[in-house]
Amino acid sequence: MSKQRPTSPPASPDNTISIIGPGMTVVGNCKTEGTIRIEGRIEGGVEAGKAVVVGRNGTVVGDISTQDAVISGRLKGSLKIASRLELQSSCDVDGDIDTRRIVLEEGATVNGTVKMGSRGAKPPSPRK
After folding, report:
1. What's the pLDDT at 16?
2. How high is the pLDDT of residue 117?
3. How far apart are CA 96 and CA 69, in angstroms?
4. What stretches in the chain show pLDDT beneath 70?
5. Contact assessment for residue 101 and residue 119, using Cβ atoms and an 8 Å cutoff
6. Backbone angles phi, psi at 84, to 5 degrees
7. Quick one: which of 67, 37, 66 has its CA closest to 54?
């Protein structure tokens, strides 16, 4: 008689956290249904169904589209955030922002236009 191990249900894609680690460079677009944390460099667009976090040493050269975002590092591109955007004091954003709500810490650098309010960015369309 063999013992069967209990199987855990597969993780939901929107609960997945993807990490671009320090020293890592991705050239091309990144898409996820969950959250992506960027501590390295992405040269291309980033689309996440849940959230994007750009760490203090992270860099994105491309557009970001997501539900929520926290930016501590550098971004050269536009931000389309459906719900809440937090720009921390160490961030440097060079591009336009379209969001519903924004939190801007003292010291954050933004060079671009900001559009916000109830008609903010639409969330990324779900994958089929």
Report:
1. 86
2. 83
3. 14
4. 1-14, 118-128
5. no
6. -135, 130
7. 37
Do the beta carbons of residue 85 and residue 66 sit within 8 Å?
Answer: no
- Residue 97: the pLDDT is 97
- Output the six-digit token pair for 32: 């996820």
For residue 47, what are the contacts with CB-CB under 8 A and spacing of at least 6? 29, 30, 31, 32, 64, 65, 66, 124
pLDDT value, residue 50: 97
Among candidate residues 84, 114, 73, the one with its CA nearest the CA of residue 97: 114
> Considering only CA atoms, which of 64, 56, 1, 5 is closest in space to residue 29?
64
Residue recorded with tokens 């597969």: 10
Q: How many helices (H) and strands (E) does the chain have?
A: 0, 15
